[in-house]
Design a protein that fits this description.
The complex is a heterodimer of chains A (169) and B (546). Chain A is built from four helices and nine strands. By secondary structure, chain A is of the alpha+beta class. Chain A has one domain (2-167). In chain A, the strands form two sheets. In chain A, strands 3, 4, 6, 7 and 8 form a five-stranded antiparallel β-sheet that branches. A four-stranded mixed β-sheet of chain A has the order 1-9-2-5, with no helix packed on it. Chain B has one domain (31-545). In chain B, the strands form nine sheets. Chain B has a five-stranded antiparallel β-sheet, with no helix packed on it. Chain B is globular. The chains are: A alpha+beta (169), B mainly beta (546). Chain A binds chain B through residues 8, 10-11, 14-15, 17-23, 26, 126, 128-130, 132-134, 136-138, 142-147, 167, 169, and chain B through 129, 137-144, 146, 188-193, 213, 215-218, 235, 267, 269.
């Protein structure tokens, strides 16, 4: 099992987020859509004639033991940004401060993980009027210092079985 | 050359024993407790933990009728595991409580148990990048409140104390035990919104306040009216002409008054570093009608910078507002870093008490949401007092203070204004009506003198920029003392009005507080209390009568 590089690229992310648009819109595209597509598994990642990989996602720093984790794995920037066509997704009821989720049968490729913690079970990421979440979330590479991480910041190359850790923020 | 680069580059060369001593010295530069710190810098060392109750040594005559608690807030955790903060704003908030009763004064203090403080206390190291310091491998944040240090001011509210920051929620505290309850929510829509540290009493049991939102290129001012029941009665999101650093505001009978400074948020390693001095962008006085947040005026002003305001009055179709005006923003961007290094490499200009007068005759028009405000030709006048001072204090015109409002004709005249300034320790014998400039200042560059401005009146009839006829009283604390905010305690049926001011005696490693009669500060304190504790210098406080 190989550890994926978790280096943060905060300066890049900050610059990327400095575009002239409301944060609310950014969150909307980046996170709220996650729920809509969670559970609709795409067959695109399935492959029989090539070796596939297993990705173990450890999610820690879960701050309240209620609701569920909404976890989705994307294979390209467009789907990641839009929250469409996840390569895989899971809904995991929260009972502990950390949970392990295993995604199998993944082809070689670039992937990025989005997690949101629906703490109150209302099936949406609660935010204030500026669009800033009041529920937990996280990204692979633990990318982004404030605001949603880009696919570039959150993506990693999967060429073998791997384990990553996502800290809920 | 950047110090970190220098150290990193040098490390490769430092392989022989000859270099060992130099290495220690160089590395020590990153430690707050290191090298050649000026004696006054003990006020910025921060503290390790809470202070248990201690009875202070009293002197003078503490009035038997004065009974209550002085609470003060300020940054107090300045380093962990050898990593020191670089800006005064960074430190975790701590509440100092001075209990005054029966002529005795007792001190205790507790850190505010913010989410950030608890995470870092458990880890033993800093885990979050703060307003002014980049922390390597910092944890990412969910929202503003993950960085909330609650270190700026304290507001009594519904029997609790609210510890205020300016970029996130208030923290609720027990006023008796200083126990932290958690963040205050004004409702789901308003969770975690920036809530500045200087809310103003709306006279109806509610508050006026504001916050700024500059994330992602926005330049928004959020103006709130918080109702008596702590619901948000009204909120307006106002597009500012520029993303200026805003710390406080003022109110007159019908207006809210903001100083949109020339210190503007752009980009930077930290929040503080992102603020740049842009003198080509004029400062502007933003006047908002309390009855209609959409009715606004902008009055262009020369480039300047402001933290704090005094009074604002409406008289003869003019609005006059007192504020402590800096010629530039180096106090924020450089001065508050120099304080923590203990070496004032950059002497930054001090604030001068000025009165800005703008006409109210132009009809306020309802601006559409896209309009900034009605921008008026430059007709503002600035009356300078010649007194360099900060932390302005005065008797508020509130419902609880009807007597004052009646006596002063319904808030149409300025009442005495108090503040503190840095007066030259060596040239202190100058007369009460002399003027002095910021070059002549105390050893520390920090305040050592209490001021009372008697008639900072509108002298526009005699021409602007009058320096010589400001009438004021002053009391110099003495060499080696630093004065903090002189809190105004309004008169009650039991006692007259007082000023209660904390101070640090850095030569003798003592902290104390002194009580002055508001009617005669030049006579000096009527009572004092001190102790062998070096408290961290702080920002703002409040007094709650017992």
């Amino acid at each position: 099992m190989k550890h994926v590089n978790l280096t943060m690229t905060t300066a890049q992310i900050r610059r990327a987020n400095m575009t002239k648009r409301t944060l609310s819109a950014v969150w909307g595209a980046g996170l709220a859509c996650l729920l809509l597509s969670a559970g609709s598994m795409s067959a695109g990642a399935m492959s029989t004639d090539r070796q596939t990989h297993t990705l173990t996602v450890d999610i820690d720093n879960i701050q309240v033991q209620t609701g569920a984790l909404m976890v989705a794995l994307y294979a390209n920037a467009e789907d990641y940004a839009a929250g469409h066509n996840p390569s895989a997704s899971m809904i995991k009821p929260v009972t502990k401060t950390e949970h392990r989720l295993v995604f199998s049968d993944l082809a070689d490729g670039q992937y990025a993980v989005k997690v949101f913690h629906d703490e109150n079970g209302n099936h949406s990421l609660d935010t204030n009027m500026l669009g800033v979440p009041s529920e937990g979330y996280g990204f692979s590479n633990n990318a982004g210092s404030f605001g949603p991480a880009s696919f570039k910041g959150a993506s990693f190359s999967l060429q073998a079985d791997a384990q990553i850790t996502v800290h809920i923020r | 050359m950047d110090r970190r680069q220098f150290l990193a580059g040098s490390a490769a060369l430092m392989t022989t024993a000859v270099w060992a001593i130099s290495v220690d010295k160089l590395l020590a530069l990153d430690n707050a407790q290191a090298v050649a710190r000026a004696p006054w810098a003990i006020g910025f060392n921060g503290v390790e933990g809470d202070y248990q109750p201690l009875t202070m040594q009293v002197s003078g005559e503490w009035p038997a009728q004065l009974s209550g608690n002085l609470y003060r807030n300020g940054p107090a955790k300045m380093s962990r595991a050898g990593k020191a903060y670089q800006h005064w704003f960074d430190g975790d908030g701590m509440v100092q409580q001075f209990s005054v009763a029966n002529g005795q004064v007792q001190h205790q203090a507790k850190f505010i148990q913010t989410k950030k403080f608890k995470v870092e206390e458990a880890a033993g190291t800093f885990k979050y990048t703060t307003a002014g310091t980049v922390i390597p491998n910092a944890l990412p944040i969910r929202n503003n409140d993950d960085l909330n240090v609650a270190n700026t001011s304290l507001l009594p509210r519904h029997g609790e104390l609210l510890a205020l920051w300016e970029a996130g929620s208030p923290y609720r505290l027990d006023a008796q035990t200083l126990t932290t309850f958690g963040v205050k929510s004004f409702g789901d829509k308003f969770k975690g919104l920036p809530f500045s540290a200087h809310p103003l009493d709306d006279g109806q049991g509610g508050l006026w306040n504001f916050g700024v939102w500059y994330v992602g290129g926005e330049k928004q001012l959020l103006v709130y009216q918080v109702a008596a029941d702590d619901s948000i009665a009204r909120m307006e999101v106002i597009e500012l002409p520029q993303a200026s650093y805003l710390h406080a505001f003022a109110q007159s009978e019908n207006k809210l008054v903001f100083y949109i400074s020339s210190c503007v948020y752009e980009e930077g390693e930290t929040y503080i570093d992102a603020f740049k001095w842009q003198p080509e962008l004029p400062s502007q006085l933003l006047v908002i009608d309390k009855a209609d947040f959409k009715a606004r005026q902008l009055h262009p002003l020369p480039a300047g910078f402001v933290f704090h305001f005094g009074q604002a009055i409406e008289k003869n179709d003019e609005l006059s507002v007192q504020l402590c005006l800096y010629p530039n923003s180096t106090i924020l961007t450089q001065g508050m870093k120099g304080l923590l290094t203990g070496a004032r490499k950059t002497k930054t200009p001090h604030a001068e008490l000025v009165t800005i007068i703008v006409p109210l005759t132009a009809p306020l028009t309802a601006a559409s949401k896209t309009q900034l405000a009605e921008t008026l030709p430059s007709s503002a006048r600035i009356n300078r007092s010649g007194v360099m001072m900060e932390f302005p204090q005065f008797a508020q015109h509130t419902k609880s203070n009807k007597e004052l409002a009646e006596k002063t004709g319904g808030a149409s005249d300025f009442v005495p204004l108090f503040g503190v300034g840095a007066r030259s320790d060596s040239a202190i014998n100058s007369g009460a009506n002399s003027t002095f400039k910021y070059e002549a200042e105390s050893e520390s560059g920090l305040s050592n003198t209490l001021y009372c401005i008697h008639n900072a009146k509108d002298r526009s009839q005699h021409g602007a920029n009058t320096l010589s006829d400001t009438s004021y009283s002053a009391f110099y604390l003495g060499k080696g003392k630093i004065a903090e905010e002189p809190l105004y305690i309004p008169a009650t049926e039991q006692h007259e009005a007082y000023l209660l001011m904390t101070w640090l005696d850095y030569h003798n490693a003592l902290s104390g507080l002194s009580l002055f009669r508001a009617s005669d500060i030049s006579a000096g304190p009527i009572a004092s209390a001190q102790m062998n504790r070096v408290l961290p210098l702080g920002f703002h406080g409040c007094f709650i009568n017992a």
